[in-house]
Amino acid sequence: MPHIDDESLALNALGEDVLDPEQRAHLDACPTCTRTVRDLARVTARVRPRTPEPELVPPDPTVWARVHAELGLTDVPAVPAPGQVTAGSGPAGAGEAHDAATDELSARRARRSWLPALVAACTALVLGLVGGVLWERRTLEPDETTIASAVLDPLPAWAGSSGEAVLQTTAEGRREIVVSVDAPAPAGTFREVWLLKPDVSGLVSLGVLEGDQGRFDVPEGLDVAAYSVVDVSEEHLDGDPAHSGDSVVRGSFET
Protein backbone atom coordinates (compact mmCIF):
# COMPACT_ATOMS: atom_id res chain seq x y z
CA MET A 1 0.00 0.00 0.00
CA PRO A 2 1.12 3.67 -0.39
CA HIS A 3 2.81 5.44 2.51
CA ILE A 4 0.53 6.62 5.34
CA ASP A 5 -0.58 10.23 4.95
CA ASP A 6 1.19 12.93 6.98
CA GLU A 7 -1.85 13.82 9.10
CA SER A 8 -2.30 10.22 10.31
CA LEU A 9 1.42 9.93 11.08
CA ALA A 10 1.34 13.17 13.07
CA LEU A 11 -1.71 12.07 15.09
CA ASN A 12 -0.07 8.69 15.73
CA ALA A 13 3.02 10.47 17.05
CA LEU A 14 0.77 12.51 19.36
CA GLY A 15 -0.62 9.28 20.82
CA GLU A 16 -3.89 9.14 18.87
CA ASP A 17 -4.96 5.66 17.66
CA VAL A 18 -6.15 6.62 14.17
CA LEU A 19 -4.56 3.87 12.07
CA ASP A 20 -6.57 0.96 10.70
CA PRO A 21 -5.10 -2.60 10.79
CA GLU A 22 -3.68 -2.30 7.27
CA GLN A 23 -1.97 1.00 8.10
CA ARG A 24 -0.54 -0.40 11.36
CA ALA A 25 0.87 -3.38 9.43
CA HIS A 26 2.39 -0.98 6.90
CA LEU A 27 3.88 1.15 9.68
CA ASP A 28 5.52 -1.93 11.22
CA ALA A 29 7.11 -2.86 7.89
CA CYS A 30 7.92 0.57 6.38
CA PRO A 31 11.21 2.21 7.48
CA THR A 32 10.18 5.61 6.06
CA CYS A 33 6.88 5.88 7.96
CA THR A 34 8.42 4.39 11.11
CA ARG A 35 11.25 6.94 11.10
CA THR A 36 8.78 9.79 10.52
CA VAL A 37 6.64 8.77 13.51
CA ARG A 38 9.75 8.34 15.67
CA ASP A 39 11.02 11.82 14.79
CA LEU A 40 7.64 13.42 15.39
CA ALA A 41 7.24 11.63 18.73
CA ARG A 42 10.67 12.92 19.78
CA VAL A 43 9.62 16.49 18.94
CA THR A 44 6.32 16.06 20.79
CA ALA A 45 8.09 14.79 23.92
CA ARG A 46 10.35 17.85 23.97
CA VAL A 47 7.62 20.48 23.79
CA ARG A 48 4.92 18.99 25.99
CA PRO A 49 4.75 20.62 29.44
CA ARG A 50 6.52 18.55 32.08
CA THR A 51 4.74 20.14 35.06
CA PRO A 52 1.54 18.22 35.90
CA GLU A 53 -1.71 20.11 36.20
CA PRO A 54 -2.29 21.23 39.81
CA GLU A 55 -4.59 18.98 41.76
CA LEU A 56 -7.89 20.66 42.54
CA VAL A 57 -9.17 20.20 46.11
CA PRO A 58 -12.48 21.30 47.72
CA PRO A 59 -12.28 24.88 49.10
CA ASP A 60 -12.63 25.73 52.76
CA PRO A 61 -16.31 26.10 53.88
CA THR A 62 -15.69 29.73 54.77
CA VAL A 63 -14.95 30.43 51.10
CA TRP A 64 -18.41 29.24 50.04
CA ALA A 65 -19.95 31.22 52.90
CA ARG A 66 -18.31 34.38 51.61
CA VAL A 67 -19.50 33.65 48.05
CA HIS A 68 -23.06 33.27 49.30
CA ALA A 69 -22.74 36.47 51.28
CA GLU A 70 -21.50 38.39 48.23
CA LEU A 71 -24.46 37.09 46.23
CA GLY A 72 -26.86 38.31 48.91
CA LEU A 73 -28.13 34.87 49.89
CA THR A 74 -29.59 35.50 53.36
CA ASP A 75 -29.73 31.81 54.28
CA VAL A 76 -25.95 31.79 54.72
CA PRO A 77 -24.53 33.33 57.93
CA ALA A 78 -22.24 36.26 57.53
CA VAL A 79 -18.52 35.53 57.44
CA PRO A 80 -16.13 37.72 59.42
CA ALA A 81 -14.13 40.14 57.34
CA PRO A 82 -10.48 39.28 56.68
CA GLY A 83 -8.47 39.60 59.90
CA GLN A 84 -11.58 40.15 62.09
CA VAL A 85 -12.39 37.76 64.93
CA THR A 86 -15.85 38.01 66.47
CA ALA A 87 -17.49 36.26 69.34
CA GLY A 88 -18.42 32.73 68.40
CA SER A 89 -16.53 32.93 65.16
CA GLY A 90 -13.85 30.52 66.27
CA PRO A 91 -10.60 30.49 68.13
CA ALA A 92 -7.89 33.06 67.70
CA GLY A 93 -6.33 32.85 64.23
CA ALA A 94 -9.61 32.00 62.43
CA GLY A 95 -9.38 35.25 60.49
CA GLU A 96 -5.91 34.38 59.27
CA ALA A 97 -7.16 30.92 58.22
CA HIS A 98 -9.97 32.55 56.29
CA ASP A 99 -7.53 34.84 54.50
CA ALA A 100 -5.31 31.87 53.65
CA ALA A 101 -8.27 29.93 52.22
CA THR A 102 -9.33 32.92 50.15
CA ASP A 103 -5.80 33.41 48.82
CA GLU A 104 -5.53 29.72 47.93
CA LEU A 105 -8.82 29.85 46.02
CA SER A 106 -7.62 32.92 44.13
CA ALA A 107 -4.36 31.15 43.27
CA ARG A 108 -6.25 28.11 42.00
CA ARG A 109 -8.51 30.30 39.91
CA ALA A 110 -5.46 32.02 38.43
CA ARG A 111 -3.85 28.67 37.61
CA ARG A 112 -7.04 27.41 35.97
CA SER A 113 -7.28 30.62 33.94
CA TRP A 114 -3.88 30.17 32.30
CA LEU A 115 -3.95 26.39 31.92
CA PRO A 116 -6.17 26.45 28.77
CA ALA A 117 -3.91 29.08 27.23
CA LEU A 118 -0.84 26.98 28.06
CA VAL A 119 -2.40 23.86 26.57
CA ALA A 120 -3.41 25.76 23.42
CA ALA A 121 0.07 27.26 23.09
CA CYS A 122 1.77 23.88 23.54
CA THR A 123 -0.61 22.27 21.03
CA ALA A 124 0.10 24.97 18.47
CA LEU A 125 3.83 24.59 19.08
CA VAL A 126 3.68 20.82 18.67
CA LEU A 127 1.65 21.05 15.48
CA GLY A 128 3.97 23.72 14.12
CA LEU A 129 7.05 21.62 14.82
CA VAL A 130 5.35 18.52 13.41
CA GLY A 131 4.57 20.45 10.25
CA GLY A 132 8.16 21.65 10.07
CA VAL A 133 9.52 18.12 10.44
CA LEU A 134 7.17 16.82 7.75
CA TRP A 135 8.08 19.70 5.43
CA GLU A 136 11.79 19.12 6.00
CA ARG A 137 11.39 15.40 5.37
CA ARG A 138 9.51 16.08 2.14
CA THR A 139 12.27 18.46 1.07
CA LEU A 140 15.25 16.29 2.02
CA GLU A 141 13.66 12.96 1.17
CA PRO A 142 11.65 13.29 -2.04
CA ASP A 143 8.79 10.93 -2.72
CA GLU A 144 9.31 7.84 -4.80
CA THR A 145 10.93 8.46 -8.17
CA THR A 146 9.22 6.92 -11.18
CA ILE A 147 11.57 4.93 -13.40
CA ALA A 148 9.15 3.38 -15.87
CA SER A 149 5.47 2.70 -16.38
CA ALA A 150 3.40 0.13 -18.22
CA VAL A 151 -0.14 0.09 -19.56
CA LEU A 152 -1.68 -3.30 -18.81
CA ASP A 153 -3.93 -4.45 -21.65
CA PRO A 154 -6.61 -7.13 -21.22
CA LEU A 155 -6.14 -10.64 -22.53
CA PRO A 156 -8.87 -11.93 -24.91
CA ALA A 157 -10.86 -13.67 -22.16
CA TRP A 158 -10.91 -10.47 -20.09
CA ALA A 159 -12.13 -7.87 -22.60
CA GLY A 160 -12.95 -4.56 -20.98
CA SER A 161 -10.38 -4.94 -18.20
CA SER A 162 -7.47 -2.52 -17.79
CA GLY A 163 -4.51 -1.84 -15.57
CA GLU A 164 -1.33 0.09 -14.95
CA ALA A 165 2.06 -0.64 -13.41
CA VAL A 166 4.59 1.94 -12.23
CA LEU A 167 8.21 1.09 -11.36
CA GLN A 168 9.62 3.39 -8.66
CA THR A 169 12.60 3.81 -6.38
CA THR A 170 12.06 4.85 -2.77
CA ALA A 171 14.11 7.35 -0.75
CA GLU A 172 16.00 4.34 0.70
CA GLY A 173 16.88 3.06 -2.78
CA ARG A 174 14.43 0.14 -2.85
CA ARG A 175 12.62 -0.67 -6.06
CA GLU A 176 8.84 -1.01 -5.93
CA ILE A 177 6.12 -1.69 -8.45
CA VAL A 178 2.68 -0.17 -7.93
CA VAL A 179 0.02 -2.18 -9.78
CA SER A 180 -3.62 -1.19 -10.27
CA VAL A 181 -6.20 -3.31 -12.06
CA ASP A 182 -9.79 -2.66 -13.08
CA ALA A 183 -11.41 -6.04 -13.70
CA PRO A 184 -14.21 -8.12 -12.15
CA ALA A 185 -13.04 -10.66 -9.55
CA PRO A 186 -15.09 -13.90 -9.52
CA ALA A 187 -15.76 -15.46 -6.14
CA GLY A 188 -13.25 -18.05 -4.95
CA THR A 189 -10.34 -16.58 -6.93
CA PHE A 190 -7.51 -14.14 -6.32
CA ARG A 191 -5.08 -12.08 -8.37
CA GLU A 192 -1.33 -12.58 -8.47
CA VAL A 193 1.27 -10.20 -9.93
CA TRP A 194 4.21 -11.53 -11.95
CA LEU A 195 7.28 -10.28 -13.80
CA LEU A 196 8.34 -12.20 -16.87
CA LYS A 197 10.55 -11.89 -19.91
CA PRO A 198 9.17 -10.63 -23.24
CA ASP A 199 9.13 -14.22 -24.55
CA VAL A 200 6.78 -15.13 -21.65
CA SER A 201 9.40 -17.15 -19.80
CA GLY A 202 11.13 -16.95 -16.42
CA LEU A 203 8.10 -16.09 -14.31
CA VAL A 204 8.82 -14.27 -11.02
CA SER A 205 5.93 -13.86 -8.58
CA LEU A 206 5.73 -10.51 -6.78
CA GLY A 207 2.76 -11.45 -4.60
CA VAL A 208 -1.01 -11.41 -4.28
CA LEU A 209 -2.93 -8.33 -5.37
CA GLU A 210 -5.45 -7.48 -2.65
CA GLY A 211 -8.15 -5.21 -3.97
CA ASP A 212 -7.66 -3.00 -6.99
CA GLN A 213 -4.17 -1.71 -6.16
CA GLY A 214 -1.02 -3.01 -4.51
CA ARG A 215 2.63 -2.10 -3.94
CA PHE A 216 5.27 -4.80 -4.40
CA ASP A 217 9.00 -4.92 -3.71
CA VAL A 218 11.20 -5.95 -6.62
CA PRO A 219 13.48 -8.85 -5.56
CA GLU A 220 17.05 -7.74 -4.90
CA GLY A 221 19.27 -8.31 -7.93
CA LEU A 222 16.42 -8.90 -10.40
CA ASP A 223 17.10 -7.22 -13.75
CA VAL A 224 13.84 -5.43 -14.56
CA ALA A 225 15.17 -4.62 -18.03
CA ALA A 226 15.19 -8.36 -18.70
CA TYR A 227 11.97 -9.06 -16.79
CA SER A 228 10.13 -6.11 -18.27
CA VAL A 229 6.63 -7.58 -18.63
CA VAL A 230 4.06 -7.20 -15.85
CA ASP A 231 1.37 -9.89 -15.76
CA VAL A 232 -1.65 -10.15 -13.47
CA SER A 233 -3.19 -13.61 -13.37
CA GLU A 234 -6.47 -15.05 -12.13
CA GLU A 235 -5.64 -17.78 -9.63
CA HIS A 236 -7.77 -20.40 -7.91
CA LEU A 237 -7.57 -21.68 -4.34
CA ASP A 238 -6.13 -25.02 -5.44
CA GLY A 239 -2.79 -24.97 -3.57
CA ASP A 240 -0.79 -24.77 -6.81
CA PRO A 241 1.76 -21.89 -6.64
CA ALA A 242 2.41 -21.96 -10.40
CA HIS A 243 0.86 -19.50 -12.83
CA SER A 244 -2.68 -20.59 -13.70
CA GLY A 245 -2.23 -19.74 -17.36
CA ASP A 246 -5.20 -17.35 -17.09
CA SER A 247 -3.79 -13.82 -17.43
CA VAL A 248 -6.16 -10.91 -16.88
CA VAL A 249 -3.97 -7.99 -18.04
CA ARG A 250 -0.40 -7.71 -19.25
CA GLY A 251 1.99 -4.99 -20.41
CA SER A 252 5.66 -4.00 -20.77
CA PHE A 253 7.52 -1.22 -18.98
CA GLU A 254 8.39 1.84 -20.99
CA THR A 255 10.90 4.39 -19.71
From TrEMBL:
Entries under Pfam families matching the protein: RskA_C
Q: Which UniProt keywords apply?
A: Membrane, Transmembrane, Transmembrane helix
Q: Which residues cross the membrane?
A: 114-135
User: Does this UniProt record's set of keywords contain Membrane?
Assistant: yes
Task: Tell me the ranges covered by the Anti-sigma K factor RskA C-terminal domain, including all copies.
Answer: 119-246
Residue segments, region Disordered: 85-104, 236-255
Domain of life where this protein originates: Bacteria
Q: Which InterPro entries match?
A: RskA_C (IPR018764)
Q: What is this protein called?
A: Anti-sigma factor
Organism of derivation:
Isoptericola peretonis
